Amino acid sequence: MGIGATCDQATLASRLWTTHAPSRPWLNFAGRSHSSAQELLLFLFYRHLLPPVEEIVILSGLNNLALARLPAGQRGDDGAFFNCGDYFGQMDKLKSQFRTHHFGSGGQQTGGDEPVRPLQVRIADAAALTIRHLESWKQLCAGTDTRITFVLQPLATWVRETAAPQERRLFDELDKISNFWELFGDIATRETARRYAELLQVGCEKIDVNFLDINPLLANSAADDSWLYVNRAHMTDYGLDLVAQLLARELDLSR
User: Fold this and answer.
1) Is 223 helix (H, G, I), strand (E, B) or coil?
2) pTM summary value
3) pLDDT at position 100, please?
4) Rounded to 10 degrees, what is the CA torsion of 220, 232, 224, 158?
5) CA–CA distance from 8 to each of 1, 13, 235 (Å)?
6) Count H helices, E strands: the chain?
7) SS3 label, residue 31
């Protein structure tokens, strides 16, 4: 969650550590555009470098929902990842060349022409995948006093329907060079966020993981004209600081 921050000191982890929850160090284990599987692996790879961890806050959720629109051949058993189409395409080319030289021709199809599944199915699939990987977080921390909280991250259109003036100018420029609404318009609504949050909350309760939907909290805390976002997923310094305040308050992170 550092994209949009003007410096390291303005990132979410820095705002928690230096100001809003300074009773313990906060480290950022986020990866750009990571899925829940990639987030889990990133922590697993570097866990041996850490002292005992008291608190894990996973601020995520959007990527799993966005990636749920990809075909089954790209989603696999553990969910898709961004740019996986390029990856699988290159792998298919290599396998095809190898088989041509040694076993004959043929390559795995990754379902590029598969129709996009209904929204409700994608919401349920993204929530189930997220909960499955949260169970692995629980098992990874079993036997410790680590508290795990999943926070549904704030998307601009999930927080409020009308953007601040500065955001509107930025969004308009970005829409000229991107296909955001074509790809993600159906998941960018507040109704989708509500349905997704409900499934995530039920799933988290079943596995005893704390859950927080920060979108309505941010909507109630920010003025209508406050500049929160540099694009619809990433925040300004002020937006990050406000989220850090809300996390510290709602999760009692300074205890």
Assistant:
1) coil
2) 0.90
3) 54
4) -40
5) 11, 9, 14
6) 12, 3
7) coil
Q: How far is CA 158 from CA 8, 32, 175, 243, in A?
A: 26, 20, 18, 14
b/e per residue 39-48 (b: at least 16 CB within 10 A): bbbebeeeee
Whether residue 7 contacts residue 235, with contact meaning beta carbons closer than 8 Å, is answered with no
- CA gap 126, 70 in Å, rounded: 12
Q: What is the pLDDT of residues 129-146, one digit of tens each?
A: 999 999 999 999 998 999
How much of the chain is helix, strand and coil, in % rounded to 5?
55, 5, 40
Q: How far apart are CA 243 and CA 151, in angstroms?
A: 11
Domains and CATH numbers, the chain: 8-69+116-250 (3.40.50.1110), 82-115 (no CATH)
- Report which DSSP code applies to 55: E
**Angle, CA 252 vertex, CA 44 and CA 55 arms, to 5°:** 15
Q: Which residues contact 82 (CB under 8 A, 6 or more apart)?
A: 33, 35, 63, 67
1-10 confidence digits (pLDDT tens): 788 999 999 9
Q: Give the whole-angstrom CA distance, residue 133 versus residue 93.
A: 31
Which residues face 149 on adjacent strands? 57, 210
Measured from the Cβ of residue 174, the count of other Cβ atoms closer than 10 Å reads 13
Q: Which two tokens stand for residue 189?
A: 């609504």
- Segment 147-159 shows an average pLDDT of 98
DSSP E strand boundaries for 35-169: 55-60, 147-152
Burial zone of 216 (CB within 10 Å; 0-12 exposed, 13-18 middle, 19+ buried): middle
Alpha-helix residue ranges (DSSP H) falling in 149-208: 156-159, 165-177, 180-184, 190-206
Closest CA to 2 of 238, 237, 247, 243: 237
